[in-house]
Amino acid sequence: MKLLILVLLSVIVxxxxxxxxAPSCKLNVPSHEKTKAKxxxxxxxxxxxxxxxxxxxxxxxxxxxxxxxxxxxxGFHMTARVPNSSATIGKFTPSDNAKILQCNPSSNAIxxxxxxxxxSISFSWSAPKKYKGKVEFRATIVKEYKEFxxxxxxxxxxxx
Length: 160
Prior knowledge:
By secondary structure, the protein is mainly β.
């Protein structure tokens, strides 16, 4: 009987977490039972390279999420935004361990493909054509089922 209860509880837990990444662009907080985001400074950094102009004229940056002091994480959901705005901007390029979530025709978000421990992950982001201004990257980062951090931000980057 105890084994049956354990199996049923395991199935219920699997139904509410997203081991293969967030299901949509708008769902940026995990549905982990009644668990709330941890408060205080997250033990993770989001580092963005200086923008580079590609041969096609696109401005791109490399974005890296990493743990402070070898802290690992299992998942993430990230968007690029104009500072002090809720509107998403630009497009991420998927990597081996990350996939794209379409937000609208002109922007997307990026999330994890699996729930394996990660020390860091990097991917590219491209600004909209003719965009000039600041952008910041915001993420929810999941350490484990009952430990996650929301609204983790990069430094603002200027796109000229």
